[in-house]
Automatic annotation (TrEMBL), chains A, B:
<dbReference type="InterPro" id="IPR005149">
    <property type="entry name" value="Tscrpt_reg_PadR_N"/>
</dbReference>
<dbReference type="InterPro" id="IPR052509">
    <property type="entry name" value="Metal_resp_DNA-bind_regulator"/>
</dbReference>
<dbReference type="InterPro" id="IPR036388">
    <property type="entry name" value="WH-like_DNA-bd_sf"/>
</dbReference>
<protein>
    <submittedName>
        <fullName>PadR family transcriptional regulator</fullName>
    </submittedName>
</protein>
<dbReference type="InterPro" id="IPR036390">
    <property type="entry name" value="WH_DNA-bd_sf"/>
</dbReference>
<feature type="domain" description="Transcription regulator PadR N-terminal">
    <location>
        <begin position="15"/>
        <end position="83"/>
    </location>
</feature>
<dbReference type="Pfam" id="PF03551">
    <property type="entry name" value="PadR"/>
</dbReference>
Amino acid sequence: MDSSQLLKGVLDLAVLAVLKERDGYGYDVVRRLREAGLDEVGDASVYGTLRRLFKAGALTSYVVASDEGPHRKYYGLNDVGRGMYASSARTWAEFSATMASLLKEAE
Amino acid sequence: MDSSQLLKGVLDLAVLAVLKERDGYGYDVVRRLREAGLDEVGDASVYGTLRRLFKAGALTSYVVASDEGPHRKYYGLNDVGRGMYASSARTWAEFSATMASLLKEAE
DNA sequence: TGCCACTATTACGCAAAGCGCAGTAGTGTG
DNA sequence: CACACTACTGCGCTTTGCGTAATAGTGGCA
């Protein structure tokens, strides 16, 4: 199974999770996701997800100048984003529990 | 989060899991998945998955006449399918563990 | 000076896959 | 004869992750 397909529908949640810890900019979010174990995530996917979540009203955004490269566009969760995180995390927990029991039956 | 997106990349594994228990035909697989908790799975998705897995050489297929409706096209796992199941299940386990730790950090 | 390498973002288009819906068809019930 | 349930197929839509290219700033090295 191509693990990239597994990200469908979950990358939003993963991005919300790292931003819930603390604000971050695109490049930083990519690094943190990869360090967390999602080492195959593409940078374009993360940038796209950030834009999508921002457009959906879940994120705040502010630009910060950097002394070691170009400017950085930081993103952070607002109330909508925190609500989205909570409900997505719950949905994910239920779904993964369902899959776990399904796989256990097939053993 | 739309839980239908979560199925992407996982429906294959779910179908392989129910067929690993015992052979089944499309309509039957749909029912068993829904009973297992994947109540939102669409029938067209399952039929498509069965065809795709069969085309990929993971399934055997045989038609059985039914006395309570049209004929039934049964599917079962062959060696390729069992191998696919094993590797997909392992990939899924690793992925869900990664997500679990990511969500735990964000608490 | 010129050439990389790293940081950082955006835009374009592709491909996979689940789903809605329509269509076909067999069986049994009122 | 209309309807409901079973059972399968095909078409087109949408979402979404990804590959690739383009743009741009900074710093190191020969």
